[in-house]
Write a sequence for this structure.
């Protein structure tokens, strides 16, 4: 990759890092706001998402430094809707994950055929994010409902 391409990749990686760090905050917050009979498994799932987001942010930062860049100290957008129903939390999670997935696709577009390491990283993250989106989508469906959730 030339210097201009390298800089664009660093910018996208930093945006990914910021989005993933926002995921850490978001999922941690959500885990604190769950009440009711199903609290324990949902809190556990949300904490797992926060941990995963932290690992993803760290990995993006490692690639930033590999390319000679400086990892961002910023955090992605955080929206407090004051709605903490499990359905609301899951819908907000879908929106956040879609934004992150878009950034990974952008990274793939910039690195495809230029860097095997970055291309494979982008593909792996896209796979994980798409599986995660499917999990959330299934959680939003009513029992027995086969069609994917759509807003």
């Amino acid at each position: 990759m030339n210097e201009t391409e390298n800089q664009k990749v660093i910018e996208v990686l930093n945006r990914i890092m910021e989005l993933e760090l926002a995921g850490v905050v978001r999922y941690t917050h959500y885990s604190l706001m769950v009440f009711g009979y199903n609290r324990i498994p949902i809190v556990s799932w949300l904490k797992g998402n926060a941990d995963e987001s932290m690992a993803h942010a760290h990995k993006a930062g490692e690639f930033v430094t590999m390319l000679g860049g400086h990892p961002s100290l910023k955090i992605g957008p955080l929206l407090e809707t004051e709605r903490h129903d499990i359905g609301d939390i899951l819908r907000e999670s879908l929106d956040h994950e879609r934004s992150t997935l878009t950034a990974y696709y952008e990274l793939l577009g910039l690195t495809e055929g230029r860097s095997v390491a970055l291309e494979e990283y982008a593909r792996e993250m896209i796979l994980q994010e798409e599986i995660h989106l499917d999990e959330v989508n299934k959680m939003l469906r009513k029992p027995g409902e086969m069609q994917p959730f759509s807003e």
In short: The domain at 3-74+83-139 is CATH 1.20.1260.10 (Ferritin). The longest helix spans residues 3-32. The chain has a mean pLDDT of 93. The two ends are 40 Å apart (CA to CA).
